[in-house]
Amino acid sequence: MSGYDPSATARVVVGVSGSLGSVTALRRATALARRLGAELWPVLAWEPPGGDPAARRGPAAGLPVEDWQRLAGQRLAAVLDEIFGGEAPGVAMRPGVVRGAPGPALVATADRESDVLVVGAGRRGLQRAFSGRVSRHCLAHAVCPVLAVPPSPLESELLSVHRRCTWHLRIDIRGL
To answer: Which of 53, 101, 104, 117 could form a disulfide bond with 110, CB atoms 3.0-4.6 angstroms apart?
Structure first.
């Protein structure tokens, strides 16, 4: 083979929103990209508030679409800076901001069979009925392998503390 084919570069695409689940997925995706010698593609998907119909109503509906795109890019940069502390993650990285619902946007980005798509698997318990839609969409529609990362133990602990505070129950602080 005589030349470099950029389409042959292995990619690990990861959905990033700033939530605890997406941070856990980003850390797992970074480790996977290192192990595979792949590029890391953190992707933040966004939609205008109220969806596309609200954005089409015109400038009176709020910020122009370009401003929402810019704000999404700033959010992604802030999350990456928070996670990596301004240092390189140890792999080639191509962050991207994609307009669209998160599930379809991630599936469209990870469009090669050789890609690996990493997503947070959502919450456990009663909240599962209202979360995990992105991971379910990706698992059902992606053409590449999908790694659905379960919540971190810290997230489970935080949810437990939040639940106990909501119901005004005692918290055993010996384990904290």
So the answer is: 117
pLDDT tens digits along 10-69: 999 999 998 888 999 999 999 999 999 999 999 999 998 776 665 555 554 566 888 889
Closest CA to 73 of 93, 106, 97, 101: 97
What residues form DSSP beta bridges with 12?
40, 116
CA distance 107 to 63: 27
Burial class (CB in 10 A: 0-12, 13-18, 19+), 20: middle
Distances (CA, A) of 124 to 139, 146, 160: 17, 19, 11
Cβ atoms 92, 39 nearer than 8 A: yes
Please name the residue that has the structure tokens 């970074």.
30
The DSSP output letter for 5 is -
| 37 Cβ contact list (under 8 Å, min separation 6) | 10
Is the pLDDT reported for residue 144 higher than 70? yes
pTM: 0.78
Could you report how far apart the first and last alpha carbons of the chain are, in Å? 57
* Helices and strands of the chain, counted as H and E runs: 6, 5
Strands 11-15 vs 146-149: parallel, antiparallel or unpaired: unpaired
**Contact assessment for residue 30 and residue 91, using Cβ atoms and an 8 Å cutoff:** yes
